[in-house]
Amino acid sequence: MTDTPVTETPSGNTPGRFARLYQGLTTIDFVGRKKIWFTASIVVIVIGLGSLGVRGFNLGIDFKGGSSWEVLAPHSSISAMTSAVTKAGLSNPTVQKLGSQTYQVTADLNGDSTATQNNITNAVVTAMAQAAGKSANQVSTASVGPTWGGQVTNRALEALIIFFLAVVLYISIRFEPKMALAAFIAMIHDLLVTVGVYSLFGFQITPDTVIAILTILGYSLYDTVVVFDRVRDNASGTNAILKGGTVTYSEMVNLSMNQTLARSINTSLVAILPVLAVLLVGADLLGATTLQNYGLALFVGLMSGAYSSIFIASPLLAVFKEREPRYQELAARVGRTAHATLTPRAAALLGSDSTQRLAGTARRPTAAVTPRARKPKRR
Fold first, then answer.
1. What is the enclosing helix (H) or strand (E) of 144?
2. How many domains does the chain have?
3. How far apart, in Å, are the Cα atoms of 224 and each of 190, 230, 345?
4. 119-132: per-residue pLDDT in tens?
5. Which listed site, 4, 9, 316, 325, has its alpha carbon 20 to 30 Å from 53?
6. Residue 342: is it exposed, middle or buried by C-beta count within 10 angstroms (0-12/13-18/19+)?
7. pTM, full prediction
8. Is the domain of 140 the same as that of 164?
9. Largest Cα–Cα distance in the chain?
């Protein structure tokens, strides 16, 4: 009995995009479109770094030191509050609206004498209370000295450095060097995108922001590790697709990405939707402003982490690996032979022996593949 070509699965109705995603029928060419993904990331990072060089960060008083006043003022506005505190003697105030009804005023009074600071603080409290229609004891105040602000900044930098050292150690042990390098670059990508967005839009950086950044970097690494585990299984596992010699390394990475795409999307949505609820409902509607800085950093970082794990890490790994002589030879050999593009469902249905039979079939970029049917035995 001779082997018959692998055929496309007949179906009466063509499934939609989401149906194809969850039925394992996608054949998205992530690696082939790497220039699009890389260009988009480079543009965002360059714009963010440009803003960082021109505008810098909007640091909270925990980092730079200074004084802060907050009041609940549902019927006031930023311009009215700015005018009130300026007339009270506060120079260069920063007025922000936290949530829908709370106003925060910050200024650096560390250069003034203690008596001057007390006089200005009392005048600002009175002015903000009048602007909000509240009593003076309903205006909360906080003050951070420059020494304490410097210590907080140093501690934040130390935490970030220790985190990166731990990550480098972990991925160096877990993966081969080129996988580890791709994962590390993807994590740096997320950090640069996040800090760039914060600088570009002037979001305030607080200790909560630093904690959130460490959290989202860990999430990004986790998602990348899951994808790379699938790549490693397809490259050198028991039923590795790459061992059949019928697909290139880039095609194997594409298959791995399509196999984990539904999981990556579901994981990202499960993480992003609660954070979005915290921002829209908790911080904006209910006025829980303490959640805003943390939730904002999480939202930006999770979006960037989901993007990098899908569109940056794996295509970057394919670029690194395709430069190796053995994979260049494999690409040249496969290029001379027409073969089918595997979908995730087809890869699950076909064993390692069936995968090797794909070398003689025609390439169909979006075709689902099924194993040949067995002939009934005669009795």
1. strand 140-144
2. 2
3. 12, 10, 22
4. 888 888 888 988 88
5. 316
6. buried
7. 0.74
8. no
9. 106
